[in-house]
Amino acid sequence: MTAMTPTILINPDENQVINAVEEFNSLLSNGASIHPVALSRLKNPRHEFSNPFPRIESHDDYLFGVLATPTSLLDGEDLFITLTFIASFEKLIVVVRWSQIDPIDAQSQLFLDSILSLPKSFSSCGDFLVLMLDKLISDLEDKTEIAHEQIDRELRMLRESDYTLGKDFPKNMMDELYGSASKYRIDIMGFQTTVEETQRVLEDIAKDRVDLKPKDLTSQLEFFPKNLEIEVSDLVFRVRHLVLLRRNLESTLSFSFSKFGKMRDEQQTSAQHKIAAIASKYGANIPFLRSAITSNDYATTSDWKVSDNCARIYSGKEKITDVSVVISTWQSIYKMPKSYFENFDVIYGDECHLFKAKSLTSILHKCTKAPYKIGTTGTLDGTKTHRLVLEGLFGAVHKVTTTKKLMDTKQLAELKICCLQLDYSDEEKQLCKNFNYQQELDWLVTHPKRNLFIRNLVLDQKGNTLLLFQFVEKHGKILYELLKDKIASNRKIFFVHGGVEAEDRENIRAITETQHDAIIVASYGTFSTGINIRNLHNVIFASPTKSRIRNLQSIGRGLRLGEQKASCKLYDIGDNLSWKTHKNYTLLHLIERVKIYNEEGFSYKFLTVPLHGQ
User: Fold this and answer.
1) Other C-beta atoms within 10 Å of 540: how many?
2) In this structure, are residues 86 and 62 in contact, taking their beta carbons and an 8 Å threshold?
3) CA distance 320 to 337
4) What φ, ψ does residue 310 adopt, rounded to 5°?
5) Are 421 and 586 in contact (CB under 8 A)?
6) What pLDDT is attached to residue 64?
7) 464 Cβ partners below 8 Å, 6+ apart?
8) Is the four-CA dihedral 132, 137, 138, 140 of positive or negative sign?
């Protein structure tokens, strides 16, 4: 076999990826090309750098995979460098990406240098991939060792301290200790999925569960021959050791975190009683960070004038102001220097579950002189890591009430959930039994009978209906066109996605408030959070998800009380493609959503709809 030269792209633009993939496709047999989902993972510049999921998949003519290493285990950011690759017998492409907001540290730069300094020529793609895995494991080992040394050093300094732990413990030292323990624990817990799934990737290779086979059945060629499988087996043992080290670090941090967390909570409880007094002083600068700007005036019953005391900052607006209260979108101010935030005394973060994003956390980290930081949200995602991120930014979590209690007291509309389990033919179930998650999702959203069922379900509803989808081009547009072709001429229908301007979305919301049978076909990203439509009677989940936040926030769109509305229907669509003992991904996601309904105390009913008979 001729020598192979790998292509390594560092934070490439879309054209660079497309050009490399075109060359890759030209080397595949019988005019084959990589799957659109694999292509989107390679070229998407808005890559998700938090909580990546390492994996390796065989796609007949090529392998597709994702690997990751944390940028640091000591900064509390839970961000990663990702390596997304495609590989055939003839060609291998690796796309390396990381967040460009902040520069990477020296250790991560060493890792990148080690990847870029790999030999330019290899005897096979499998040789290169195994060597890249070795560099990745070495980086994971180095960063874990650095974290271990730093945490041990700080705990040793603590034990040697002459301070007596108690209520008189200096607050600034308390905050520093709590902050350090919180940051470290966020990274160590966020690191769990990465290291465990990397172990799974290596085991799949070592045990020959994933491999490429040549089209020529007489050929003895293997992508991962026996000698490489033995090398990967050694990497498996190294990662197993990393898994144990990570667990040990988490246990080590638990003691200090719980002790300082309890003491800090006691201090904060007394401090929170002072917040109302601080907020009532007009001289105190109070920024409200929101994902959408509010125009509601809550001061109509007093002589305090909103127009004189508040400034709204959003796209195109002046950022420097001398008023007491600043209401801003985070996008407008997150790039401002630290000095900009030094005059603020109180920070309110609305929809604070979004604050795990790098841009939002950077705002809070810059507000070093604000003694009071308050976050409000209706949903946490249920994971320890997410809660720790928010506690590190705002302090202890206090649950004021629940959605169920608000429904029982008639402060929210009654929620009626109907879980619709779509059942498919045995032939279709057998076809899909070996699909990975993306393949299953792609198959479902393009299924003609499924989309027709959703269309008919929407048209049958009484009142205003919100239909939520995940993919604009391959699902949202299809559903919109199906509905538009069938809808009555006097019934309004709107299509909303990320390309629709915020002002147009607000106009659609306002128009819907005046209608009695309007239909909004909207992406989860635009209408699952922060949109307030009181006159909304039905919500339909057209795309499967197991995200707790997205699920509960989407439900919240229908829970506002209206003059002629006391209840809201939710149709949660799941898909049963299970075959024998195998359960498909989206059915498992439906089960996860039902668990959420049970935890929240929501009542629901289950209906099975056979699509194969339609």
Assistant:
1) 24
2) yes
3) 12
4) -120, 145
5) no
6) 92
7) 512, 515, 516, 517, 518, 519, 520, 533, 535, 536, 537, 538
8) positive
Q: What would the mean pLDDT of 46-64 be, rounded to a whole number?
A: 78
**Token code pair at residue 224:** 């991962």
Domain with CATH 3.40.50.300 in the chain: 276-400, 404-610
Tell me the average pLDDT across 550-555: 76
Tokens of 222: 């293997």
CB 492, CB 518: distance < 8 Å: yes
300: phi then psi, degrees, rounded to nearest 5: -70, -20
DSSP string, 101-117: SS---HHHHHHHHHHHT
495 vs 432: CA distance, rounded Å:
30
Q: Residue 582 above 60 pLDDT?
A: yes
CA 140, 142, 146, 152 dihedral sign is: positive
CA pair distance 41, 528, nearest whole angstrom: 24
Q: Is the distance from CB of 415 to CB of 560 less than 8 angstroms? A: no
Q: How far apart are CA 255 and CA 182, in angstroms?
A: 12
Q: What is d(CA 90, CA 610) in angstroms, rounded to the nearest whole number?
A: 45
Q: Where are the beta strands (DSSP E) in 11-89?
A: 55-58, 63-70, 80-87
Looking at domain 404-610, does it have CATH number 3.40.190.170?
A: no
Distances (CA, A) of 530 to 298, 334, 351, 549: 18, 19, 8, 12
Name the token pair of 164.
């007596």
Q: Where on the phi/psi map is residue 463: left (φ > 0), alpha (ψ -120 to 50), or beta?
A: left
Q: What are the φ/ψ torsions at residue 538 (nearest 5 degrees)?
A: -135, 140
Among residues 241, 250, 144, the alpha carbon closest in space to that of 202 is found at 241
Q: Is pLDDT above 80 for 574?
A: yes
Chain-centroid distance, C-alpha 226: 38
Query: What's the CA gap between 1 and 125, in Å, rounded?
Result: 11
Residue 482 is encoded by which pair of tokens?
């199906």
Class of domain 276-400: alpha beta
Task: Look up residue 498 and give its two tokens.
Answer: 């990320």
Q: How many residues does the chain have?
A: 614
CB 475 within 8 A of CB 543: yes
Tokens of 573: 């669509």
Instruction: Give the separation between CA 389 and CA 381, rounded to whole angstroms.
Output: 12
pLDDT of 184-209, one tens digit each? 766 777 788 888 889 999 998 888 88
Query: Is residue 69 within 8 Å of 139, Cβ to Cβ?
Result: yes
Q: Are 455 and 447 in contact (CB under 8 A)?
A: no
